[in-house]
Amino acid sequence: MQPDPKHIQCFKTALLAGTIRTAAAQLGLEPSTVSRNISALEKQLATALIERGRKGVKPTQAGSLLLGFIQRQSGELEALRSQLDELANMERGTLSIALGEGFVGDFVQTALSKFSMDHPKITYSLDVGATDDVGTAIIDDKAHVGLAFNVAPDPRFKVVAQTQRPLVVICRRGGKFDTSKDVKTEELSHLPFGFLRRGYGVGAVISDMEASHGFRARAVLETGSIAALKAFVRSDLGVTLMPEFVVAEDINAGLLCARQVSVPNFGMGTVTLFVRQGRRLPVAAQKLIPVMSRSLMSLND
After folding, report:
1. CA 259, CA 178: separation in Å to the nearest integer?
2. pLDDT digit string (tens) for 62-74?
3. Structural domains in the chain?
4. Angle 51-55-56 from CA coordinates, rounded to 5°
5. What's the CA angle centered on 166, arms 102 and 291, to 5 degrees?
6. Is-above-0.85 flag for pTM?
C-alpha cells in the first residue's frame, strides 16, 4: 500500500520547518493533525521516523532515508516533466535561483537578461539571502541553482564554477574616508565599519583576516541588508569591507569608491555557483548554468 501523500507532505514539511507547529502553519493545518499524519505514516512503515525534542523535530536514521527518497523522487518527477516539455519542443516552467543579495544586480542585468530573451516561456523565482540561506535552499531542493560568496565546503554541494575576489574598503567618494592611498592593516582597527551579520560569507573572511593580520575592526553597524550598508557608507558614517563587484553600480555612478588594502590577496574569498549533488536538474536549469558561469567569470571585468 502506497503512503498517503498528505502523510508524506506533513512528514517532509515538519523536518524542513524544524517544528510541528511551524509545519502546521505552512500547511494550514492544526499541529495535532500534522502529528497524527506523521504517526499514521510511522505505523504504516512500522518504524519511527522523527524524534521530538525541546528544540523541535529531527529525523531518525529511517526518517533520513525516507526524506532522501522523497527528495530524489521529487527531482525525478521534475526531470520527467522537463523531458516531456522538451519532447514537445517547449521550454516552460519555473526556475528557482538562490543567491546572495550582492549578486542580484549582476544576475538580473547579465545572465537573466540574456537567458530570458532566448527562453521567453520560462518564469523565475529568486530567493535572496545570506550565504547560509542559499546553502539551505539548495540542500532542501527549494532552489535549483545557488550563487553565494565564501560558501563552506559541503559534500552535498556540487560546485559548477568558482572565482576568487578580494575584499576592499568601500567608502563614500570624496568623503572623509576617501584618500588615494591604500589602507594599511593598522588603520582597519580605527575605521568605523558597517558589517553584515553572521551567516554571510563576508563575515567569515573578515574574521580570518582579523586573526591572521592582528587587527580588530570596529563595527558601528551590523545589518542583514547590503542596501543598508550602502546607505551607511553613502552617508559618510563609515566604511565597509566587501567585494568590489557588489557596489559596482555605485562606483560607476561616482557615489562610492574602493580602496585596496595594502596586503597581497587581502580578504580573498570565493564566489561559488553550485547545485545539490546528485540532483537531476530540469533542462532549463541545465541551460541557465553555463550562462551564469560566464557571467560569474566576468565579475568586475
Report:
1. 8
2. 989 998 888 888 8
3. 5-67 (1.10.10.10), 91-163+270-297 (3.40.190.10), 167-267 (3.40.190.290)
4. 45
5. 50
6. no
